[in-house]
Amino acid sequence: MQEPSPSVIKAWGRLIRAERTVVGRIEAELKSAGFPSLHWYDVLLELKRGPEGRLTPREIEEAVLFEQYNLSRLLDRMEGEGLVRRIPYPGDRRRQLVEITDAGRALQERMWSVYGAALNRFICAKLTDKEAGQLSTLLLKLILE
Amino acid sequence: MQEPSPSVIKAWGRLIRAERTVVGRIEAELKSAGFPSLHWYDVLLELKRGPEGRLTPREIEEAVLFEQYNLSRLLDRMEGEGLVRRIPYPGDRRRQLVEITDAGRALQERMWSVYGAALNRFICAKLTDKEAGQLSTLLLKLILE
DNA sequence: ATGGTTTTCATGCAAATGCATTGAAATTGA
DNA sequence: TCAATTTCAATGCATTTGCATGAAAACCAT
What we know:
Chains A, B: Keywords: DNA-binding, Transcription, Transcription regulation. Two copies of one chain form a homodimer. By secondary structure, the first copy, chain A, is mainly alpha-helical.
């Protein structure tokens, strides 16, 4: 095997560490404010953005990169909390539509007040806008294909 | 709250997504080659780098950013597989030293042959060395403090 | 049409993780 | 010196995740 270059290995290590570090810090903020995890937020935000606050589970999966079975059960819990509701998908009884409820929208907004503040502290304070743009560009290359 | 800048929000989204994407791809490779997860690899590599292949659990924790209780149980499993062994820490009976075994070293090397190849495919192929360096520099800013 | 395939979502069971706590040993400070 | 505090690791219990599979509906090819 051709060894990966040292600079790539270093970048990879930092990618892992940066993600864990920042996620850890943000999750800690959310928890101490009494909110559920980022996963819940991600689902709520995607739904909110979807047409009429609705998406199919597949679409959510694709958007947030969850496993199908994990999303299925996450939706169970969120439905139990009244944050989303499952409704029939017109014209295809295999599928379903997940719709965000008013309570879901409200929670998303309250979480954002903590989450956004955390992003300010843990990212905005560390990178200039220009650097953030460079970071986006580089990371996009890793995501593609 | 002052809204985080759009470029920061975008960079953050991509950081999450890039990490999930690449980790997912690499884990899939490892699994299909019959190997355990990256977490196991991380511990083995840290130990291998430590003096005489030994570190305390605290040191491993710090290096790989695991929770104490998760590491404790991961070490149980790894010890059960004969990859590491726990030995007394001289002069402090609260602590312990975790030592990588020959089997552990061998596994780390076999895993690297798959892991390194995956890094080539999923990162080296996507970034020039210069870009990898830029990425490292930017990510470091997020990790610090 | 219809039998086989594919897509979509759910679920039983096992494994891993999170949370709170324990227990033991070392350290600190009056 | 010794009681209070801190550090280190393990563990019981609940929650979450992973894996394999199932069931139902839609699709497809003959």
